[in-house]
Amino acid sequence: MIAASNSRIAERNMQSDTNWQDIYMMLRPIAKRIVYAYRIPTWRGQENDVAEDIIQETARKLFEYELKIERREVPPIHALLPLVRVIAYNYGKDLRRRDQRVVHIETADEEVEHFSSHNDEVSMEECATENAYYEMLFTEMAQEIVHFPCKQRQALLIDLATHMSFEQHPTPLQKAFLKVGIQLQEYRHLLPTTPEERNRYTSLLAHAYRRVSTLACAHTYVEHSENGAGTVALN
Question: Where are the domains of the chain?
Answer without folding.
Answer: 1-106, 131-235
